[in-house]
Amino acid sequence: MELSYILPAILIVVVAFTVYSYNRLVGLRNMADTAYSNIDTMLQKRFDLVPNLVETVKGYMRHEQELLEKITRARTDWLKASSTSENAKADNLAAGALKSIFAVAESYPDLKANQNFLMLQEELVGIENKIAYARQRFNRTIMVLNTVIESFPTNLIANLFRFTKREFYEIESDQVRSTPQVDL
């Protein structure tokens, strides 16, 4: 074969690989953004229920004011969050406070029988399950994106077009990781 055919063929392969890699990176980045938005949507639903929960339990848990303040603070922190880690910290704080409230509620038979409380509890449990699934999906997507960004030869394309690794959505709080204990 002549050199005049080999160079254009190599150039076509390099251009095709660059286009394919770039499009794959864009697709993964968009999937990660969508997965993060799904977490945000679920957290918004959870935090929209918080004022109702606080009002429902306020009359029963007068001496548990610190827990109620934690939930309110977590909601404020979440609204101000500008990164994945800040969002996760607020989420962790809220999840821990909510678990504590539901654990403490076991001490209040009237509260446990309150229909509003039961309805909010059921809805929050459903949302927590959806949040857990959304976190898993986000982290799987981030794992794939980060792997592609770090793998040769796509790392050359990622560096050329300034694609960067993303943070995982991590639960840092031991309180959130563990089952709440109720001391009656």
Key phrases:
rod-shaped; 79% helix; mainly alpha; de novo design (two linked rop proteins); 184 residues
* Mean pLDDT level: 86
Poorly predicted segments: 179-184
Can you tell me the CATH superfamily? LemA-like domain
User: What is the architecture at the second tier of CATH?
Assistant: Up-down Bundle
Percentage of residues in DSSP E strands: under 5%
| The CATH topology | de novo design (two linked rop proteins)
What string gives the helices and strands in order? Answer: HHHHHHH
Number of domains: 1
Shape: rod-shaped
Summarize the structure.
The protein has 184 residues and is an all-alpha fold.
Helix and strand arrangement:
Blueprint: H1 3-58, H2 65-80, H3 84-105, H4 109-113, H5 115-150, H6 154-160, H7 174-177
Describe this structure in words.
The chain is mainly α and 184 residues long. The protein has one domain (14-170): de novo design (two linked rop proteins) (Up-down Bundle). The chain has seven helices and no strands. It has helices spanning 3-58, 65-80, 84-105, 109-113, 115-150, 154-160, 174-177. Helix 1 packs antiparallel against helix 2 and helix 1 runs antiparallel to helix 5 (115-150). The relative contact order is 0.15. Mean pLDDT is 86; it is low at 179-184.
